[in-house]
Design goal:
The protein is an alpha/beta fold. It contains four helices and seven strands; from the N terminus they run αβαββββαββα. The strands form two sheets. A five-stranded mixed beta sheet has the order 2-1-3-5-4, with helices on one face. A two-stranded antiparallel ribbon has the order 6-7. Bound molecules: zinc ion.
Length: 172
Amino acid sequence: MKNILFSVLIALSLSACYDEWWHLEELPGEIVVTDPHLEPYLDIVQESVDGYNQHFTKPILHLKVDYKANKKCGRLYLMTMPGDKGGEATVVKGCKQYLEISRDHLDAGDGLRLIIQHEIGHGLGLMHNEDKNSIMYYMSVGYDKKTKKWHQHITDDNLQEIADYFGVELKK
Ligand SMILES: [Zn+2]
């Protein structure tokens, strides 16, 4: 029952993401964690970043922790926010990018990884799609009680779209 409830929570939160999105002119490169509340979860954040990096011949993202970060263009900022929205990715004037994670969902374990990867996907220019296997499906599906993981992952199509847009190479 708890899992079903959690599933619904994530579903609602992911659907709250903006559908309108546009690509940065350059790869963001840096994901800067700006909120100390994320400190106990940095391994999950790193895992989420690695989830993208491992598929490319050279890393496209690297994680930096800077609680006093001076927000400049072309970076992705991972923040937290109060309230019950799970995740949200925002572009301000085509320049600053924020990935916000609700503090209510910081203890979501693998669900937190799902939210972060989904929002980073938006940050890399991906829209929602209809593929239930994809991290970019608008809601979370397929929680596996044994592995305690969600079924969704970064698909070959997701990766190809990022690679094509940014002119980077996928590992064979
Ligand atoms: Zn979304």
